Amino acid sequence: MDNLKEKENTNTGTINISLYEPEVFFDGLDVETIESEYQGFSIIESATTIVSLDENFVNEERLTLLKKQYTRELIALILDEDFEYGFDTKADVLVRSQMQLNALAVKSWLNWIFVENFSNIPVLLGILRIIARFDYREISPEGQTMAGMALSHENVEVKECGVRAFESWGTVESLKELEKLKVSTQWLQEYIDEVVSDLRKEYNVHICQENR
Amino acid sequence: MSIFVRKIDKAKWLQTDLHQNIDYSADAITSCLRTTQNTLSVWEVESETDIDEAVLAIISGPKYGHPFETIDIVLMSPNYLKEQGINCRRTNGSTLVDDLVEKHIDISNLTYKSLGMVAYHIVEKIKDEKVVRRTKAKLMEILNQAISRNRLNPDRLTDSIRETLGLTKRNIDVL
User: Which of A42, A161, B120, B166 gets the most CB atoms within 10 Å of its CB?
Assistant: First the structure.
């Protein structure tokens, strides 16, 4: 029976949700509720651990849920809280908890909020500070896309937050992104140059004088 | 003469051109001069060569969850505050580095007027380039140095901070 389940899992897209803890995966919904409320799911075994599902459907549903139920809350937290570098915020906690449920949907959601609020500086700053605190791979690729967009934003603080995000991730890709960046604000350019220098040292990148 | 060090967010102060304007942004005041019981927290160091001691005290605070985020610090003059009649008193600071606990000062009994004087002083210090930025690489170096000199017990740091510093359980045992 176990072998049969495994075969189903690999060949038909069936997912053993017991691996994901169903109550977490479906945010507290029991199997009966899932079956009645989500038409994309069907129970293929009386045991409550196996359901057949369309992964695209799951992600879409989660994204819709995030947009409808959590967008206002996240933006309110970003706007209401006093942010200070070094300290966690309730917005961080909210996004981290949602990331544990469905990272793909959360990254799309954050990206959506970012684009929708591209002229709303406080919201952009809030999103950038949140994504900078995730590991590079966890937040990839949307995180890097957002930070990259921030680098070309006209607002200096948004630009700085983009640089901070790449600095925080501290990867070779971060170095490549920041090396080519030139800004007109002197203090920000000095910061960029320092981060580039730090990353070059970390990755032992030697730049010939004529290439500078 | 000693120096008082306070963490600020330089970008907030530079929202306006401080050399051209006599006014400064409200964001700077509300985000960098947020008082608790009319008090602002600063760390005292002996000279400019010691400012990383204050940085260490700040980033090793027990509630400081993201110690590798680039920070700006402003170097303030205790003399200026004294001349303005602003009250400064020594209190125990919140840091995991025991030998820095007593280096903490509360600028206390602040009012609308005296907070304005502090803001003015910070602006003057920014103009004098007495604001220092410490990037992630430097902050890691500061924490690592404190650990290797047995000033900071790595067991008191969170797992994620230890991981970023490359401190596995085995490495800590060796230290």
Answer: A161
